[in-house]
Fold this protein.
Amino acid sequence: MSDSIRVAIAGHGLMARVHAHAWRTMPYFFQVGRPVEVAVLLGTDPERTQRAADSLHIRQTETDVQRLIARGDIDILDICAPGDAHARLTIPALEARVHVLCEKPVGTSLEDSRRMADAASKATAHGVVAMAGYNLRHVPAIQEARALIRDGALGSVISIRGQYLQDWLTDPATPMSWRLRKERAGYGALGDIGSHIIDLAQYLVGEDIVETIGYTRTEWAQRPTDSSDGGHEAVTVDDSAAWLGRFSQGSVGTFEASRVSHGHHNQVRIEIDGTRGALAFDFERMNELLVAQGGREPGTFRKLDVTGTGHPYGDVWWPAGLGLAYDHTFVHLVAAFIDCVETGTRVSPSFRDAHQVQSVLASIESSTRTGRWVSTAS
Amino acid sequence: MSDSIRVAIAGHGLMARVHAHAWRTMPYFFQVGRPVEVAVLLGTDPERTQRAADSLHIRQTETDVQRLIARGDIDILDICAPGDAHARLTIPALEARVHVLCEKPVGTSLEDSRRMADAASKATAHGVVAMAGYNLRHVPAIQEARALIRDGALGSVISIRGQYLQDWLTDPATPMSWRLRKERAGYGALGDIGSHIIDLAQYLVGEDIVETIGYTRTEWAQRPTDSSDGGHEAVTVDDSAAWLGRFSQGSVGTFEASRVSHGHHNQVRIEIDGTRGALAFDFERMNELLVAQGGREPGTFRKLDVTGTGHPYGDVWWPAGLGLAYDHTFVHLVAAFIDCVETGTRVSPSFRDAHQVQSVLASIESSTRTGRWVSTAS
Amino acid sequence: MSDSIRVAIAGHGLMARVHAHAWRTMPYFFQVGRPVEVAVLLGTDPERTQRAADSLHIRQTETDVQRLIARGDIDILDICAPGDAHARLTIPALEARVHVLCEKPVGTSLEDSRRMADAASKATAHGVVAMAGYNLRHVPAIQEARALIRDGALGSVISIRGQYLQDWLTDPATPMSWRLRKERAGYGALGDIGSHIIDLAQYLVGEDIVETIGYTRTEWAQRPTDSSDGGHEAVTVDDSAAWLGRFSQGSVGTFEASRVSHGHHNQVRIEIDGTRGALAFDFERMNELLVAQGGREPGTFRKLDVTGTGHPYGDVWWPAGLGLAYDHTFVHLVAAFIDCVETGTRVSPSFRDAHQVQSVLASIESSTRTGRWVSTAS
Amino acid sequence: MSDSIRVAIAGHGLMARVHAHAWRTMPYFFQVGRPVEVAVLLGTDPERTQRAADSLHIRQTETDVQRLIARGDIDILDICAPGDAHARLTIPALEARVHVLCEKPVGTSLEDSRRMADAASKATAHGVVAMAGYNLRHVPAIQEARALIRDGALGSVISIRGQYLQDWLTDPATPMSWRLRKERAGYGALGDIGSHIIDLAQYLVGEDIVETIGYTRTEWAQRPTDSSDGGHEAVTVDDSAAWLGRFSQGSVGTFEASRVSHGHHNQVRIEIDGTRGALAFDFERMNELLVAQGGREPGTFRKLDVTGTGHPYGDVWWPAGLGLAYDHTFVHLVAAFIDCVETGTRVSPSFRDAHQVQSVLASIESSTRTGRWVSTAS
C-alpha cells in the first residue's frame, strides 16, 4: 500500500477540471486515511494530453490505459472523458482492481452500461469500488429532500416534474463538438442532462421508472465544424427531449431536457407531489428546498435553508447561510467515493443505477420511434 | 331594442358570482352603447334559485330555459352552470337569437361541444355571438405574450411547458361535489383546469395540438358524500393528469394538471421556448411577464411589468404598478363579448376553439387507454 | 332617513375613480343595511366637474361644499381631492353631521390635520364617522400580519424596515402636477407614499413613532409646466426621502420613500423583526406574507397565502389562491367605513391616527433642517 | 527569493479555514509565478494552535509574531485573528517587509486603523502590499455592478439601500464569544457586518460617506459564558444598528445591520438608484444582478446572470450558469492580493479604504450618543 491515494484522471475537458479541483479540496474537509494525489492525466494524443496536464497542474501523463494500469501505482481511475471511452477504460481498470469513478451517463448505449455494470459486480467481490458521477445527488438540498421522502413527509408520491434547461445551443452558429456526435456522446440533451433528472427523480422517489413515452428532436440539424474551415457537419443527437415516465409504484413523471432554451444557462428543477406534502428544488437556488405540508398549514411553502448544523454537509463547510455551489457537489461526490473505498459503504449511485438510467434513455428513444409506451426492462 | 342590455346568468356557484361582478363592473371601465343589467338568474330548483338570486342581488329568477327565452327581453345568456347543462341551455338560446357566453370547457364531451359549435356557426349568420369563457386569455400578460409571439419575438416555437396545479382535493376527507362526477363534469382536473392550459398554449402559440399522449389518474377513488350522511361515493373523474402534445408546426408541449398538489392553491405556469427567445408566465405573479431574448443579452430574463400605458388594458384601469387580479380577467372577458355583440369583432375564443380543446381532452383520455399517440382530429 | 346611503365624492383624479369603483362593488360582497349610491360629484370648475362626472357615471354635480351640505340628502362625503382641500371640505361637512372619508395624508400640514382631528372628535359625540383613507391597512396580508404581531408571534419588536418606491418621476421631462406643488400637496414622496409606510408601520407594530431623523431631497428642481407652453416651473416638494424613526417601546425603523426609483412602479415593502420571529410583506406579491419563526424551524421563511377561508376577507371573495389586488383594498376600506357608520365600530384609521402620521412627517422635515432627532409630539 | 510563496495565517476560527482553502485553491485557477504554500499557523496558546494547525493541515506553528518574522521565510502574513490582534500583528510585519492581508474591519478602533494605514503607506514605498479582506468586493455581481456604475449606466446616484441581516444571535441562550466583547471586536453587528455594507456601498458608488446619523442597540444585554459554568457575562457590543449616510456627492444611503433578525442566516442586500437606472443585489442569489434602465424599457428589472464568458471571473471557473459561492470570493481576494504582490497593481481595498470604513463606524457610534449627524472626517 502506497502512502498516498493516487488518482488518475481520464479526459481533459470541463469535467476533468472540476474533478481535479474536487480531489484536491476534499481532504481538507473530509477525513481521509491517507493523502490524496491527482497523479496522472490519461489522454489519447500525447501533446494535447501534456498541455492539458500542465494546465491542470498534473505532473504525469499517460496515453494508454493498459500502460496506466501496468504502472501499478494508481488506486483510482476517474473517467471524465467522452462517453465512447467509458467502457473501454472502465473494464480493464476494474479487472486490474483499480477503483473507478465514471462520469455520467456511463457509456453511450445500453450495451456499454450493461457491460460496465457487470464488470462492477465482479469487481465488488474483490472490494473494488465502481461509482457513477451523478453529482446532483450530492447537492445538500437533494440529500435533505431524499431524507424527507424516505421518512414519509410526503406520504406516497403522486407525481414528479423534472426539467433541465440550458441555452448553450440556442445560437445555430455555435460549432460542433463531441457532445453533438452520436458515436461519441450516445445522446444529446437527453443523455447529457436528461440523465441527471432521471437519476435524481429515481433517487428521490426511491423507485425505478418502468415505462416511458417521449420524443426527441433536433432544431438545428447541422452546425459549423469545430475546425473553422467554413464547412458544416450534421448534428447526430437531439437538442431537446420531453417524456412521461411511470414509476414502479404508480406515480408518473413529466420531464423535459433542452439545450436550446433561451434564458436558462443551467436550470434544474425537480418538484415532487405526494399525498401528504410536496417539495420543490431549483438548482438556481441550490441552497434552498421548498416544502409544503398539508394539515397544519395548508397551501403554503416553507423555504428550508439546507446549510448549517443539522443539515447534510452542514458541519463540513461554513456556517448556515453562506451557501455552497456547483463545485462543492463534486467534492461531496469524491468524498462519498473515498468513503466506499475506505469503509465499504454501499456505493450510490452504482453502475447498476447508472445502467438503469441508460435503460430509461433507451426506452425514451425507442418510444420516439414507436409512438407508444416502452418498458425500461432490458 | 330595449334601452338596456339584459343578461341572464345560469348557475349559482362561484362562476355565477364572478360573472355577475364582471357584468356590473365592466360598463364603468369600458365603453358600452347601452346600460348593462344582470336581470335574471336561471336555475333548476325554484327555492335554491331564489336564495342564490338574493345573495347575488339579482331581481328575477327563472327555472326553465324555454320560459326564459319566451320572455323575449333577454339579450345575453351567460352560462355558469355545470358542464352537463351547457349544450341543453346553449342550443335553444342561440336558436332564439340570444347571445351566449358559456363557461369552459363547453359541455362534458366531444359530442356536446360539436353540437354547440355547429349551433354557433348557424347563429353567426344572424349576428348572434357565442363565446367560451376561457378567461385566462384575458390576463394582460397573456395578451402581451400573444403579441410578442405573433410579432416574431420568439422566432419559431420549439417547446411549451404548461402546469395547472391546485390543492383543494389533497385532503381525502373533502366531500364529493358535481365537479367529481363524470356525468356532470365530463372530466376532473383534466377538463376543469387542464382545458385552461390547453387553450392558453394553443392561443399563445397560434397553432392547434394535433396529437397527444398522456394519462389520467385518481388518487382518492371515493369520498364522503356531500350530504354528510356518513356514506361514501365513488369519484368518477381524474384528480391529476399529464400529457405531451404535438402542435401542428412540430413543436411539443409538456403539460400537467392536478387538484392534489400540496402547496399550490392555484398555480398556472406557462413557459414557451422559441428559436429566438423564451417567455414565462406564472399566475401567482399575474402582472409580470418574463422574457428572454438571445443576441444582445444572452442568458437573462427581463421582468416585464404589463400594467400601465402601452400594455393591454393599461389605460383602462389604474396606473402602472398597481396591478390587476383574477376577477379583472372576467371583466375583460365580458367586455370582449360585448364588443363582439356591438361591433361584430371576431369571437375569441369561439365555440369552435372550445370544441378543439374538447378534442384534445378526448384524445388524452383515449391515449390513456391505448398507450399511444392519438390524433385530435375528430 | 333616505332609503339609500348617498355618497358624494370630492375630486376627479385617480382616487375618485378608485373610490367610485369601491362604493359600487362593496354592497355586492359585504352586508349593508341600505343600498349605496354614488350620487354627487363635488368639484370646483363646473365644466370640468361635469365632464368628470360623465366619465365616472355620476349623475349629479356640485361645485360648492356649502351647497352640497345644504341639499340635506348626502350621508357621506368621500374626499379624493388634493390635500389643500381636505380641511376646507371636511370641517363644514362634519359640523353638518355628514360622515367623512378623507384620502391620506389628511391635509397638507400639521395645522390642517389637527383641526380635522378636533372636528372629528366633536363629531363622534353625535355618531358622525370620520376616517382616513389609508387603504393599505386593508390588504389581507397586512391584516394577517397585524393579528400575528398582536398575538405575540413575533415577540417584542426589534426593528422595522419600510420602503415605498415608485418610478413615475424618473424622467425629468415628466411635467408638473398638483402633487409637485407644496401649497397643494404639502409634501412630495414623503407625504404621498412615505405617509403610507409610516401608517402601516405604526399600525402593525401597535406603537407610535416618537422621534425621527431624516432628510428629503429633490433631484429635479424644475419641470415643464403642465400646460405645454414650453415653460418650466419650480418643483416645491421632495422626490425622495429617508429617515429613521424611534417607536415608543424602543424599536427603530429604517424608511425610504422615492418617486425617482427606476424599476419600481409601485413597490411597498415592510419587514418587521421581533425577538421571536420576523415577517416580510411586499405589495408586488400582495397575497403573500412571509413569516419566520425561531425555535422549531430556525432560519427559514414560510410563504403564507392569505387568501381563502380562515384568512382576512377569505370568505368574502374567491376561493384560496385566486388573489386580490389594489382595488379590492378600497372595497375593504369603504366596507369598514360603512361598518362604523352602521354599527359604531371603532374607526381605524381615525383622523387622530392620521394626525399622528402628519406629526411624523413634520418631524422628518424639521430634522432635515436641524440635523438632529426631532420629537413627533406636537 | 524562495522557490515558493510562503503564507502564514494568524488565527484559527472560521476565517482561517476559509482563507486556507482560498490560498490552496487559487493557484489552480489563477496564474501565479511561484507555488503557494500555507506554511505556518500563528496563534497564541501553543497547544490550541497545534490542534488548529492539525485540523487545517498546516505543518508548522508559531505563537509569537516576532519569532515568525525572524524566521525570514514568510512572504505573506494573512491575519484572520480577532480585531484586537490586527494592529499588533500588522505593524511589525509590514516593517519587516512582509506583505499583509488583514481581515475586516481592520483593528477595533479608529486609532488602530489609522496606525495600520500609516504603516501601510510607508510599506508601499518598499513594494510591500497591505490589503483589507473585504471579500464581498470580489463577488462577480459586485464587480459587474461596479463597472456598470463607473460606465454611467445608472447616471448619477440618488440613493443607496444596504442591509446585512443574520439570525445567529436571535436565541438569548447562544453563549458569549469574542465577537461580543468590545475590547476584542470593537463593535458588534455594526463592525462585523455593517462594515461590509459600508465598504460595498462606497466601493460601488465610488464616493466616501462623509456624514452619518444612526443608532446601535443590544437586545440581549447578557449571555451565558462560553465556559458553560452556568454564569452570565455582559455583552458589550451592539447586536443591531441602523444609520443614514451622506455620500460626498450628495446621495444618501439607508443602512441596517443585525444579528438578531429571524429568517435571515446571512442576507446581504444592496440596491442603488441613479438618475438613469437602478440595480439590486442580494447575496442569497449571488450569481445574479438585477438591473433596471429607463428609456427603452421603463419599469422593469432584467436578471443579469454574471457567470460565463464576458463577465468578471467568467473565464476563470465554470461555464455560464453553474455559479459560484461564498468561498470563491476569498479565492478572488487572495488572487487580487497576489496580483498586487507580483505586478504592483493598485491595492483594493487598501488599509486607507479600511480606515475610511472605521471612520464611518466611529461616526455612527458617536451619532448614537449625540443624536445628530457626525462627520466621518477624522
Remarks:
- The longest helix of chain A spans residues 351-370.
- Chain A touches chain B through 48 residues (CB under 8 Å).
